[in-house]
Amino acid sequence: MLCLKAETAGTWAGLAAQELDRVLIDHAHCEMKAASNALSLVARHPDEMDLVRALSELAAEELDHFRRVVTVLEARGLTLGTPPVDTYAALLRNAAASLPSRHRTRLVLVDRLLVGALIEARSCERFKLLLPELPKVAPELVPFYEELFACEAKHFRTYVDLAKLAAREDANLVDGRLDTLATLEAQIIRDRALPSPTVHG
Ligand SMILES: [Fe+2]
Ligand SMILES: [Fe+2]
């Protein structure tokens, strides 16, 4: 799906539905991190106006998702609480940092954007897997997750398009770089001993 090279374990969706409260809490944190990651890229690259515009728009959408998941938490009597341990994004960033060419500032930005694209793609896959389970446990959330599924797919494309812009004369290298990073991401997913009830677990 999208550029992903490994499918989530078949047991994840059932577990996520069973432990929906834990998934929702983790999901709220993921949306908050998605907004703050986009804004931190804006802060680091204030002269790249295409990036400033696209990522501030994306951050606004992620913040809207965050607020809506928080509303769901409150309706279920939950608090946001401290975030569950999320090794997925950290492992992915470390894997990207281990690739050659890190000395070139422009490729650092390209990689950060492509890591963002992969996280969006994986979230999108997870929402798609969760959707058939929701009617059994929380039918009222189906329209929300259908909307999120489409929105995270759109964010994947935004990040890939921005990576091509950021690469400038090296834009033709971006597809290959995404392919390499997707292979690393797939390994992280395959290395999971057991699925956990989190968006990327
Ligand atoms: Fe989102
Ligand atoms: Fe997103």
Task: Report on the architecture of this protein.
The protein has 201 residues and is mainly α. It has one domain: Ferritin, core subunit, four-helix bundle (Ferritin, Up-down Bundle). 72% of the residues lie in helices and 0% in strands. It has helices spanning 12-18, 20-44, 49-75, 87-97, 105-130, 134-137, 142-167, 174-191. α2 (20-44) packs antiparallel against α3 (49-75), α5 runs antiparallel to α7 and α5 crosses α8 (174-191). The longest helix has 27 residues, at 49-75. The chain starts with 11 loop residues before the first helix and ends in a 10-residue tail after the last helix.
Question: From the 3D coordinates, which CATH architecture would you assign?
Answer: Up-down Bundle
Q: Bound compounds, please? A: fe (ii) ion
Q: What order do the SSEs take from the amino end to the carboxyl end, as H and E?
A: HHHHHHHH
Largest sheet: none
Question: Helices and strands: which structural class?
Answer: mainly alpha
Cα-based radius of gyration, to the nearest Å: 17 Å
Q: Which shape, going by the Cα principal axes?
A: globular
Q: What's the overall average pLDDT, rounded?
A: 94
End-to-end separation in angstroms reads 18 Å
Which superfamily, in CATH terms, is the homologous superfamily?
Ferritin, core subunit, four-helix bundle
Give the C-level CATH assignment. Mainly Alpha
